[in-house]
Every structure is written in structure tokens, then in C-alpha cells.
């Protein structure tokens, strides 16, 4: 039976009729009086660190949202309002890693307008070892009889195109 196979794969145990008759398991935590059912199920019976929840006999977990006092929030807002903001400009740029002169545009801080494109330094092309016809005939041709020079050049092209980002290259 397919459903039995799925249950076996997922390691689901068959329920006994006796255990299905019982509505609540003895190991199951009881919801304390005064705690909403939704709150109890969302916290899996592990409440926040508030005193009310602790008094109900529930464990302490850190709050999801950070708690700060309003004075520190206002102080941070005042500091942010007094800070000078940077001006942003829409600029064209040319990626120095490209040789075709293609121009793109993006937002950039005005004070950094003369900086080179920051991602150009990441784009490095690898330089593969090349071979001449003599080197191919002397060294490579004899390695594999069914392998042609065109196939070797194609392999070299693919290796250069994908920057040798493969652990194994196999035909």
C-alpha cells in the first residue's frame, strides 16, 4: 500500500485505538489559566520574560521585538535629524572590466562621483595556457586518439568562458 510506504519512509507511527481515544496526552503541557489559547500555541508553552507570564509558571524567552525606553529613541531621532545627509545623484558609469564601452546608470553619492565602479575589481578574467600547432601535435594529440584539436579548442574556450569554476571537467 502506497500510504503505508509513505508513513514508513516518514517514520510515522501507527496510532493505537487506545491512544486515539484519549484526547490529551499526559506529556502535553496544559495552558495556564488566563493565557489565550493562541498565545500559548504560538509560544509553544514558553512565554516571554514578562512578569505576568512568569507568574503563571511559564518559562522565560527573549522578546521578539527589542524593548527600549522612549527617551533613548527620541535622543537617537534628534541626533539623526541634526546629522548632515549626503546628496545622491543619478550617474552614468562605465565598467572598466568591459571592453565594449557599454554605459549603465545608477544612484551614487555625490562625494563619491569620481570613484571607479566598485565591482570592476571583482571581475578578473583568467588567462589560460595556450598552445601552438607544434605543441598540440607533439604533446596533446597522442594523449587521446579520438580527441580532435577542434574539441580541445572548444574545451579551452568553455574553461575560459566559465573561469574554471568546475571541480571536474569531463567529456
Strand and helix layout:
Blueprint lengths: L1 H8 L7 H5 L15 H6 L8 H5 L14 H13 L5 E7 L8 E7 L23 H8 L8 H13 L10
Antiparallel strand pairs: 1-2
Describe the structure.
- It is built from 7 helices and 2 strands, in the order H-H-H-H-H-E-E-H-H.
- It is flat and about 90 Å long.
- The longest helix is centred in the middle third of the chain and has 13 residues, at 70-82.
- It folds into 3 domains: 2-55, no CATH class; 88-121, no CATH class; 125-171, no CATH class.
- Strand 1 (88-94) and strand 2 (103-109) form a beta hairpin.
- It is mostly helical and 171 residues long.
- 2% of the residues are buried.
- A two-stranded antiparallel ribbon has the order 1-2.
- InterPro entries: DAMP1_SANT-like, Swc4/Dmap1.
- Residues 117-171 form the DAMP1 SANT/Myb-like domain.
Give me some keywords for this one.
chromatin regulator, transcription corepressor activity, 3 domains, mainly alpha, 7 helices, transcription, 171 residues
Describe the strand arrangement of the main beta sheet, using strand numbers.
1-2
Strand elements, count: 2
Strand content: 5-15%
Radius of gyration (CA) equals 34 Å
Low-pLDDT parts are none
Q: Given the C-alpha coordinates, what overall shape results?
A: flat
Structural class: mainly alpha
Helix content: 25-40%
Q: Average pLDDT value? A: 76
Keywords: Chromatin regulator, Nucleus, Transcription, Transcription regulation
GO cellular component, one term: Swr1 complex
Region (Disordered): 1-46
Organism: Euplotes harpa
What can be said about this structure in brief?
It is found in: Nucleus. The chain has seven helices and two strands; from the N terminus they run αααααββαα.
Amino acid at each position: 500500500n502506497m500510504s503505508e510506504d509513505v508513513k514508513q519512509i516518514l517514520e510515522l507511527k501507527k496510532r493505537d485505538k487506545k491512544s486515539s481515544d484519549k484526547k490529551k496526552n499526559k506529556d502535553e503541557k496544559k495552558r495556564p489559566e488566563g493565557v489565550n489559547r493562541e498565545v500559548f500555541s504560538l509560544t509553544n508553552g514558553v512565554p516571554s520574560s514578562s512578569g505576568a507570564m512568569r507568574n503563571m509558571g511559564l518559562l522565560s524567552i527573549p522578546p521578539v521585538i527589542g524593548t527600549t525606553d522612549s527617551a533613548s529613541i527620541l535622543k537617537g531621532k534628534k541626533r539623526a535629524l541634526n546629522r548632515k545627509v549626503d546628496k545622491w545623484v543619478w550617474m552614468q558609469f562605465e565598467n572598466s572590466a568591459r571592453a565594449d564601452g557599454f554605459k549603465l546608470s545608477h544612484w551614487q553619492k555625490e562625494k563619491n562621483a569620481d570613484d571607479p565602479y566598485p565591482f570592476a575589481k571583482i571581475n578578473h578574467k583568467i588567462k589560460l595556457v595556450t598552445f601552438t600547432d607544434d605543441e598540440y601535435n607533439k604533446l596533446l594529440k597522442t594523449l587521446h586518439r579520438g580527441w580532435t584539436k577542434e574539441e580541445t579548442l572548444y574545451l579551452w574556450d568553455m574553461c575560459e568562458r566559465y573561469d574554471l569554476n568546475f571541480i571536474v571537467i569531463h567529456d
